Amino acid sequence: MHGSGDERAPIALLRASALDLPFPPNSFDYCITSLFLHHLKDIEVLTVLRMMDRLATRGIVWNDLTRNRRAYWMTSFATIFADPIVKHDARVSILAGFTGREVLDMRDRLSLDYTQYRRHFYHRFTLAGEKF
Q: What's this model's pTM, rounded to 2 decimal places?
């Protein structure tokens, strides 16, 4: 509320490519990506993760989909009565997801040693951690 002593900065909207963000290093406490990186090629995923690490002073969080047969079939069943577009996108997204080994390989390639890989409910995972 304006004038109440709570003088927060206004929200600024910015349109930019996730592969080329216009911020200097250490611009944010944390950088978070959720259910997005599975839409990119592996080299682009590595680029975004490297940028997140560069921009974050405290840590990063990557939340995304796990790719495996069980996830595919459970998602196919869960969307059986869904709109055809939703049904198609859900299946394609699972197929574009990541295996645990792929996530750990990307982490190791970027030396993100402070992050931990964790599996979550309904075939999701996080790669997250705080810098020390």
A: 0.87
